Amino acid sequence: MISDKLPTIWYGGDYNPEQWQDPRIWEEDIRMFKLAGINIVTLNVFSWALNQLDEKTYRFDDLEEHIDRLYQQGIYTCLATSTAAHPAWMASKYPDVLRVDFQGRKRAFGGRHNSCPNSPTYRHFAEQMADQLGKRFKGNPAVLIWHVSNEYGGYCYCENCANAFRKWLKEKYLCLEALNKAWNTTFWGHTFYEWDEIVVPNALSEEGEGNVSAFQGISLDYRIFQSESLLACYQLEHDALKKHTPHLPITTNLMGTYPELDYFKWGKAMDIVSWDSYPGIHTPTSLIAMTHDLMRGLKQGQPFMLMEQTPSQQNWQPYNSLKRPGVMRLWSYQAIAHGADTVMFFQLRRSIGACEKFHGAVIEHVGHEHTRVFKEVVKLGSELAELSDKIIDSRVQAKVAIVYDWENRWAIDLSSGPTVSLDYVEEVHKYYKAFYDHNIPVDMVSVNDHLLDYDLVIAPVLYMVKKGYAKKLTEFVQQGGTFITTFFSGIVNEHDLVTLGGYPGELKELLGIWVEEIDAMDPAHSNQVIIKETGNVLKEQYDCHLLFDLIHTEGAEVLAEYGSDFYQGTPVVTSHQVGKGKAIYIGTSAEQGFINDFMKLQSQNLGISSLLPKVEGVEVMARSKDEKTFLFILNHNSYDVMIEIEQGYLDIHTGEEQKESLNIPANGVSILEEIKSELFTNRSR
Ligand code: GLA
Ligand code: ZN
After folding, report:
1. Is the dihedral of CA 164, 166, 168, 174 positive or negative?
2. Which residue of 131, 304, 432, 645 could cross-link 240, Cys pair, CB 3.0 to 4.6 Å?
């Protein structure tokens, strides 16, 4: 659990009492929080300017009063460090805190998440702020966790960043010769003879319009560098806080598949991962599920915090649809099912001004509890209070792992060719969805994670194969695992330099194939995957799109061939026996139907079973602890469904035993406790 002071599922969210200078409202807030079962609030997220009047003057009395008032009523605090938006005085006195954007324009004061991560001023004052807060609140019993800054993100291209980048490069490459080689600078004669000749890659230099880079080497390094620069800022505050409160966990709120930061590195620096989930009305529920699993994967399956979600709607989407009745509850349980131990909202009371006045909140502008949204919040709050004890500290267990890698994604995005339409997250999601659709739990893992606990590992579009990874995959297969990868894999090393000797480079031997050419077609065009032996799972043919590898087998067996074009009849899906396992290659972007059927077949072959048989629109996940398994059955349909189950479950909401079939209403959820668990007894992780 996150804190033994509050050993339940945390329920609450971002609360900004400073926006109302009215004690009657504060009292009213607390009354309503208690009605809703709210047990924690996040305070102080954007209060830097209120907390610090100038270089030397700090003022925390108001903040302390809020913390204490809430605590007296049994409500704890997740205390933010307030450094997510710098004060106006700081920007005007110390312009180095202001970022330079991708176009090369120096920013003026305004907005948020706006400080240059390599500004000495920002680093100094942010660290000081964490130090001051730590000193002031270290003995405060209400504070259970630190929330550093808020949604770190964005890149800066200022002179401080350029200098820090050159220093970072010197440490990484030691000499310019190595750097020139890694970036392949002899191409277009970009050879560097002095470190100072290196400028940041932006619209004015290597990245032009910003879609691709002329030199992936420098652009890739700049992404790694900026992600690490922001992480260093987090680390500074983290260390300052730890000095005062070594016992308190520290987090910062992440954003799922957010493209700019390598969250696997961030996860290592955080005591607990937290993230903000803002799906739109049409976001596939499988994508929400995948993102939760990715966030869980950052700390190898430890529970995470759902730090923010809207109770009803956002303000920043083109159409800010309401969450339909029941959906807030449904998606909250979905987060829990995937490993969250908190359900928290942005925001608890709706602002009266500025851009978030139309963002949904637990307490609406009307100010009372007689609203649909508030009633739903109350209902969920009372349910969580009931079932927390059972669920807290349970874990998701999976035999399937999907590899996700931010650097790989950057390299794909930055590369010019073979297509503009390749979307890494979308391709990963297609593979994830196949398991989601079969109710098979998945872990999302990094290239640094251990693989041997899994039976099946899938690395969609593993364009970049880093040093040692091919060996790790080979060991996994030799010991009996099944590894699946796809088109556009094994092409480059960690500098985005092509591995010579034929695609898929370092994976060639493991896969037992050679890819001679890669054809690309606009997404409207299709070829076909013709299955050689259909068995009883696969159909005879499926469509495929976008990229088409022209494959020679070198030891692998052909499972399917192309149906048309000049490479009709040549291999498109292959399987290679290596040691006790096999390595499978899918040489094209196949339609979802193929991926679903093919993953089903592989799961069957490996004895990986579904938690429950599939019912359209119904998601099933499981968490378990102490030999006990809880099945979460989530009906994402806008109609009721009947689910067939075996006997032997207790419904943990009603306490009643469930028999054979179970009705779940539209947008409803059932959580069943297995009376006797055999599902997971032989699972190791
Ligand atoms: C982010 C931020 C919050 C708020 C919400 C609105 O998640 O962290 O401060 O702006 O978006 O959806
Ligand atoms: Zn900068």
Report:
1. negative
2. 131
What topology does CATH give the domain 618-684? Immunoglobulin-like (2.60.40)
- Residue 67: is it exposed, middle or buried by C-beta count within 10 angstroms (0-12/13-18/19+)? buried
List Cα–Cα distances, 637 to 197, 284, 372, 485, 620, in angstroms.
58, 12, 20, 32, 13
Question: Averaged over 247-269, what is the pLDDT?
Answer: 98
Task: Give the Å distance between the CA of 617 and the centre of ligand 1.
Answer: 29
pTM here is 0.97
Amino acid of residue 104: G
β pairing state of 581-586 and 571-578: antiparallel
Taking only the tens place, the pLDDT of each residue in 163-177 is 999 999 999 999 999
User: 334-346 burial string, b = 16+ CB within 10 Å, else e?
Assistant: bbbbbbbbbbbbb
Whether the CB of 314 sits within 6 Å of ligand 1: yes
- For the domain made up of 10-157+221-391, the CATH class stated in words is alpha beta
- What is the per-residue pLDDT for 660? 84
pLDDT, mean over the chain = 96
Tokens standing for residue 553: 């087998």
* pLDDT surpassing 50 at residue 107: yes
Q: What is the pLDDT of residue 646?
A: 78
Which of 356, 357, 358 for mutating ligand 1's site (highest number of atoms within 8 Å of CB)?
A: 356
Ligand nearest to the CA of 120: 2
Domain positions in the chain are: 10-157+221-391, 400-606, 618-684
Cβ atoms within 10 Å of 566's Cβ, excluding its own: 9
Instruction: Check if the beta carbon of residue 562 is closer than 8 Å to that of residue 526.
Output: no
Q: How many CB atoms lie within 10 A of CB 131?
A: 18
pLDDT above 70: percentage of residues in the chain: 98
CATH topology of domain 400-606: Rossmann fold (3.40.50)
Give the pLDDT confidence of 289-341 residue by residue, as tens digits. Answer: 999 999 999 999 999 999 999 999 999 999 999 999 999 999 999 999 999 99
**Which residue, by CA, sits nearest to atom 10 of ligand 1?**
356
Q: What is the dihedral of CA 305, 311, 316, 318, to 10 degrees?
A: 120
Q: Which atom of ligand 1 is nearest to the CA of 150?
A: 8
Distance 456 CA to ligand 1 centre (A): 36
The 3-class SS string of 558-607 reads EEEEECCCCCCCCEEEEEEEECCEEEEEECEEECHHHHHHHHHHHHHHHC
Cβ neighbours, 10 Å, residue 446: 20
Residues serving a catalytic function are 151, 308
According to DSSP, the residues that pair with 44 across neighbouring strands are none
DSSP H helices, 275-314, are 285-297
- Dist CA 260 CA 669 (whole Å): 34
pLDDT of residue 258: 98
